[in-house]
Design a protein that fits this description.
The chain is an all-alpha fold. It is globular and about 60 Å long. The longest helix is centred in the first third of the chain and has 27 residues. Helix content is 71%, strand content 0%.
């Protein structure tokens, strides 16, 4: 669905563009990312509003995305599967209560996974040079460590789910 919509939009833009340098495949890829993000945020926030957890849903999306931007992680081959999975986590996590002890456990596990695996699966999905990977790891660690100040269950759950995506079984 998202792939075909992005392809149609890219083709339309290419036809309407007078610039021969516009690459339809690059445009399609960018549109898939943009459409996926917009759909995830919009649908998640609507569901969050309907379930009385719109703020928590927004925090889940933002915290997961922030850590993912610098730590990388697993990518589905299908944009549709990515969308459904992202929406599911964004709307379910705010409804899962955790104890204070579990909050610390998730936070510690997230930190461990980020230290061990970040950044993960960045090549081919980013233009960041390998020389900067240690910086990405450092920023990822700082992001997770910051929650030791807040001890936010929402952040702990979002960081934990994101840190699991860093594990690359092919390593």
């Amino acid at each position: 669905m998202i792939d075909s919509l992005a392809e149609k939009l890219a083709r339309s833009i290419k036809i309407a563009s007078e610039d021969d340098k516009v690459n339809e495949e690059v445009m399609k890829f960018a549109l898939i990312i943009s459409l996926n993000t917009a759909i995830v945020v919009l649908i998640s926030l609507i569901i969050g509003q309907l379930t009385g957890k719109v703020v928590e849903t927004g925090i889940t999306i933002l915290s997961f995305s922030l850590l993912r931007m610098v730590s990388g992680g697993f990518h589905f081959k299908s944009a549709n599967l990515c969308t459904v999975t992202s929406i599911s986590f964004a709307v379910i996590l705010p409804h899962i209560p955790i104890t204070s002890g579990m909050n610390y456990i998730l936070l510690a596990l997230s930190l461990l996974l980020v230290i061990l695996y970040a950044p993960s699966n960045i090549e081919g999905h980013s233009r960041i040079p390998k020389e900067k990977y240690s910086l990405l790891k450092g920023v990822s660690v700082i992001i997770v460590l910051s929650n030791f100040l807040f001890l936010s269950p929402i952040l702990s759950k979002a960081f934990f789910i994101q840190s699991i995506t860093l594990i690359n079984r092919g390593r």
